[in-house]
Amino acid sequence: MNFARIGVATVAGFLAYFIVGSAIFVLAPQVIEEGRKYAGIFRSREGQMARMPAIMVATLIAIFILSLLYANGYHAEYGAIHGLHFGLLIAGFVVSAFVVHNHVNLNVGLKLTVMQGVAYFVQWTAVGTVIGLIYR
Fold first, then answer.
1. What CA–CA distances, in Å, run from 54 to 35, 60, 102, 116?
2. Contact by Cβ (8 Å): 116, 99
3. What is residue 74's predicted lDDT score, i.e. its pLDDT?
4. Can you tell me the distance from the alpha carbon of 113 to that of 34, in angstroms, rounded to the nearest whole number?
5. Which DSSP string do the residues of 3-64 spell out, in sequence order?
6. Distance between CA atoms of 125 and 83, rounded to whole angstroms?
7. Whose CA is closest to 86, among 59, 99, 68?
8. pLDDT in tens, 73-130
């Protein structure tokens, strides 16, 4: 394992997560609008922004763990394609373990669940791809 590459892949994956997430919300503002229908479940924008440092640290830790997992299975010929496959697996895990789980446990509609599923799937696929590009 190359810890310098793990560190760079972690930072790049972290940036990709927030850049892609921001792009999704800019290009598809209806995701935010749909979430506003569930004010009893989601914090206000101000409440979310006040807690933003915590989610940033937690996301950085999560992407660091993913970078370690990627590096653990790394082979010299890997790169963007393997990163894409890795990202698709992670995205599938996130949608199954988080998005669908929340749909069952929280009182949110199917429309919001599908929107979140697509958004997280794209975000985490991008993170895995970037980790693969950087770690190679």
1. 21, 10, 20, 20
2. yes
3. 76
4. 10
5. HHHHHHHHHHHHHHHHHHHHHHHHH-THHHHHHGGGTTTSPPHHHHHHTHHHHHHHHHHHHH
6. 8
7. 68
8. 877 777 889 999 999 999 999 999 999 999 999 999 999 999 999 999 999 999 999 9
**Is 13:130 a contact under the CB 8 Å cutoff?**
yes
Going by the DSSP 8-state scheme, the letter that residue 136 receives in this structure is: -
Whether residue 134 is predicted with pLDDT greater than 80 in this model: the reply is yes
DSSP string, 94-125: HIIIIIHHHHHHS---HHHHHHHHHHHHHHHH
Q: What is the pLDDT of residues 35-50, one digit of tens each?
A: 999 999 999 999 999 9
Whole-number pLDDT of residue 78: 75
Q: Which amino acid is at 117?
A: G
If one counts every other C-beta atom within 10 angstroms of the C-beta of residue 72, the result is 9
